[in-house]
Each structure stands twice: as structure tokens, then as C-alpha cells.
Specification:
SDR_fam, alpha/beta, oxidoreductase, SDR family NAD(P)-dependent oxidoreductase, 245 residues, Rossmann fold, EC 1.1.1.-, 7-stranded parallel sheet
Length: 245
């Protein structure tokens, strides 16, 4: 494996995370793919010549162990991409089961916080700065009925991104976010396979199409690069213009 930066991608076994991991590997970086599905992480890592780490971001002990293993394998973590996220169901807020809400908060918000905390502490101790990119959603700013629980966690991730950027700047650690619109991933496969649902989504997008993971990865890689040296605390949408509607 090359001598590039050490990059940890959570939820990296599929979807946006896998595409991000592939992009960093293509750039010559060392990559650890962390995923709650250990077998899927191992499969993706084998294909990409990366490391696999089985870790559940909703479990603090699993995060501590996974981050430690990734840091050991990579020789330190220079870049963290907090991509792990779930929807876990949907429905009006008045009918949403509390366990669905709690599950989404545990992964999307608490998981982002816990992994950031663990990795940032190591970055500070190493004294060589770092880059953190959080995968958010335009749902943090544009509501969709039935997805309020998911969108609330992404709004919280945006707030966490800004606070982390402020607190970590003195340590040379930049923190930014990428907020996609709908993306073709395993998580959205059911929606996209329904012609009516897909048409409804596409009608909200001025560019007229649902994104692919490869539409998202260039911005993630850029924000983690030296070209973005004066950008921190930003959350940038990649949505085909959906927030304009």
C-alpha cells in the first residue's frame, strides 16, 4: 500500500462511503473502511486494496476499538470521513416509533460525535493537523414529510461540524460537511425502484436526475486536500439545484 495519508471512512462498505474510499485510494492514500457489516467491509477493502475495520458507530466501545485499530493499521489518521448513516424507516412524526428515532440519532448524530471525538483526540496528540469531512444531507435545510427524524439528525451534524471547526482550528484540523440531495445507494434503492417515488424526487431537482456516489466524491476529496486549506466550518450541498426550489 502507498505512503499517502491515512484515511478512515465510516460506513465505507457501500454507497457513498465506498465511492469515497475508492477515490482516496485512487489518489494514493492509505484507507481504512469501517462498517458495522464486517464481511462487507472486508469485501470492499479487498477490492480496493484497503484495510477493513468492523465497527458500530452507535457503540462507544466499538468506536474506540475500531479507531484504535484503524490508526495502528494506517500509521495514524490524517483524514476522517464520517459517512455512516441510516434512515431506519419513516413516517409522520406523530406516528414515528420511538425506537426508529433513537436508532437514527444513535448512528447519525451520536456516531458522528463519538467517532469525531475519538479521531480528533488522536489528531491533536499527533500534532500534525487533520481533515474531517461529515456527510450530511440537504434534508437538514429542506424538509420532506416522513423524514423528519432523519433530517433532524443531519441538521445536528451540520451544527456539530461548525462547532468542531471552531474548536479544532487551533490544532490545524479543518472540519467541513458535504450535503447531498438524493443519491443512488443501497439505502435509497427501494425509493428509486418505485417509478412514482422516483419521479417525485426528480421533479424537485432542477438538473432532473438523482445523483450517483461519483457526483459526491470529488467534493469530499477536495475538502480534505490542501487546495481547501482556508475552508473550515462549511457545509456544501451537492444536489443538482434542489435547494433552489
Amino acid at each position: 500500500m502507498s505512503a499517502g495519508r491515512g484515511v478512515l471512512v465510516t460506513g465505507g462498505a457501500s454507497g457513498i462511503g465506498r465511492a469515497v474510499a475508492a477515490a482516496f485510494r485512487a489518489a494514493g492514500d492509505r484507507v481504512a473502511i469501517a462498517d458495522v457489516n464486517g464481511e462487507a467491509a472486508a469485501s470492499a477493502a479487498k477490492e480496493l486494496d484497503a484495510f477493513a475495520v468492523a465497527a458500530d458507530v452507535a457503540d462507544a466501545a466499538s468506536v474506540a476499538a475500531g479507531v484504535g485499530r484503524a490508526a495502528d493499521e494506517l500509521g495514524g489518521i490524517d483524514v476522517l470521513v464520517n459517512n455512516a448513516g441510516i434512515v431506519a424507516g419513516g413516517g409522520p412524526l406523530v406516528d414515528l416509533p420511538l425506537q426508529v428515532f433513537d436508532a437514527v440519532v444513535a448512528v447519525n448524530l451520536r456516531g458522528t460525535f463519538t467517532v469525531t471525538q475519538a479521531v480528533a483526540a488522536r489528531m491533536i496528540a499527533a500534532g500534525r493537523g487533520g481533515r474531517i469531512v461529515n456527510i450530511s444531507s440537504i434534508g437538514a435545510r429542506q424538509p420532506t414529510a416522513g423524514l423528519g427524524h432523519y433530517e433532524a439528525t443531519k441538521a445536528a451534524v451540520d451544527a456539530l461540524t461548525r462547532t468542531a471547526a471552531l474548536e479544532l482550528a487551533a490544532h490545524g484540523i479543518r472540519v467541513n460537511g458535504v450535503a447531498p440531495g438524493p443519491v443512488r445507494t443501497p439505502m435509497t434503492a427501494g425509493l428509486i425502484s418505485d417509478p412514482a417515488a422516483r419521479a417525485a424526487w426528480e421533479s424537485r431537482i432542477p438538473d432532473g436526475r438523482i445523483a450517483t456516489p461519483d457526483d459526491i466524491t470529488p467534493l469530499v476529496v477536495f475538502l480534505a486536500s490542501d487546495q481547501a486549506a482556508h475552508i473550515t466550518g462549511a457545509v456544501v450541498q451537492v444536489d443538482g439545484g434542489q435547494l433552489l426550489t
